[in-house]
Amino acid sequence: MLDILNEVKDFEIITIYRHTGADADALGSQFGMKYFLESNCPDKKIYALGDDVGSAADMFPTRDQLDDISIAKSCAIILDTGNTERIDDQRYKMAKKVIKIDHHIEVDAYGDVSYVDTKAAAACEILALMFENSKKVVSTACARALYIGLLADSINFTTTSTTARTLQAAAYLVSCGLDVNKISQERMGMSENDFFYINEIRSSVTVDRHVAYAIMDASTYEKYGLDYNLAKEKVFAMANVKEFEIYCLFTEDKSYGEGYYNGSLRSKNVAINEIANDYGGGGHANACGVKKLTKEDISRLVNDLANLL
Amino acid sequence: MLDILNEVKDFEIITIYRHTGADADALGSQFGMKYFLESNCPDKKIYALGDDVGSAADMFPTRDQLDDISIAKSCAIILDTGNTERIDDQRYKMAKKVIKIDHHIEVDAYGDVSYVDTKAAAACEILALMFENSKKVVSTACARALYIGLLADSINFTTTSTTARTLQAAAYLVSCGLDVNKISQERMGMSENDFFYINEIRSSVTVDRHVAYAIMDASTYEKYGLDYNLAKEKVFAMANVKEFEIYCLFTEDKSYGEGYYNGSLRSKNVAINEIANDYGGGGHANACGVKKLTKEDISRLVNDLANLL
């Protein structure tokens, strides 16, 4: 296992990065690393960089600011990022040494030191086990950041990537003084507005064979104070229904003008990304997206999906 | 830690019990124990007894049948039950030896051997750690039963009773060959009917200060093929909303005649059981119930709850 304290020992400045469109595993591993180094290297200056924060941002501090000269002197640690293009703050290239720590399938083999474990459910799992192994101080703040990332990427310990090691990492983090109940309330709680908007989605569901879908107009989500980005995330409103093999949320995107919808498509078992490709979209086998659909396109798309089952 | 194989070694017949109104921890610990003994004592006859199965029943086998004479020869193991009155199948009293294993606060100190750990999040947690400690065979079926009970009583590892030990127990069970993704799909999946009924509840929600409540008539839940018992369980439809400090589901119970409702009351932080008591109900501080309320009673009750906040 990588000895991170040994790797950074010759540097006074450490810069920490993660991918663009940061999710909870990206931010959790970034701040988990920051807190671990702060506890164990009080003489070093440690910065969490990166502009682009997503919907998990409210559970983490804001990023640090740093000038180019300082970055050029630093050791860069890049977390949860498989390809160099997605590293948020490309100034990492200026750093004296680059360390990659990741759990994605390797797209770019970058870094002077690289530690990739594709069997880990989350980058936060790798760090939790690394820090436990180090026998050094792990503060509650560090454990909290890692636990949030672990929960997010393993979807509360339910994904196929969740292993005994994932739960061992979780057990270790809880032993560092976490209040799992408080973390859960922070993570799972939705606003009353979201509750009622999700209800609108569920009330709009149409079922065609085993495909469930909802078409949501901008006027509806705006009524609940939501913008397009927040509205389109709510595809989970149709998750966990036994009969819904495939479920899709079509959300109006007014940037294309009126009457155009972007679709978030989810499938439990069948691969649906080829159909997404047919409509100019893309993504993973069980989670993909299509942009700029008319209502007629949606009808055809839903029919094509239903024909897969 | 209790050496269960040593405790039962002199018996040819072992009978296993749990509490009435069996939940997933009761059934999980009962069948987990049964499978463990079957793997490790192939010469013994092992029976899971008890009539009263609840909504978790579809994830477990049906109970065994056994005559009084066999029970009288047996060693009885009683799981997850704090008081003797709730033991499902009172014939346990006929058994030659009684072993109690539980995580509830002790109401009745019963049993020739008693192993009570109130710090465990679930009876299944106690068994998982006991079986791990034994170094004996733990089959995947045994691990699955225990994991389901552990998830249920810890509400997916989110309750205040969830400790590092709970997650260590979970890690051990997963290492016995569990497919956590499959278990999650089995547990979390709701039927399309439930989806649309839950939606009716959510569409009926009224918010009074930070109390959310829904009043559901029998005609509505019957439209979705639900009976009273299945309908009243759906109080979770209002969970996890930041603004809802207290939430209540009032479900019509036609056994009292028309227009009478039973309430399931939930609170995040404030104790509400004294108010439940004022209306002739009872239960825990944050989860309690009241029976036979008119709509006028409900208005007064909601007002009393809102005044607590």
UniProtKB/TrEMBL annotation, chains A, B:
Residues 238-305 form the DHHA1 domain. InterPro entries: DDH_dom, DHH_sf, DHHA1_dom, Oligoribo/pAp-PDE_c-di-AMP_PDE. SUPFAM superfamilies: DHH phosphoesterases. Residues 14-149 form the DDH domain. One of its GO terms (molecular function) is nucleic acid binding. Pfam families: DHH, DHHA1. PANTHER family: BIFUNCTIONAL OLIGORIBONUCLEASE AND PAP PHOSPHATASE NRNA (PTHR47618). This is Phosphoesterase RecJ-like protein. It comes from Breznakia blatticola.
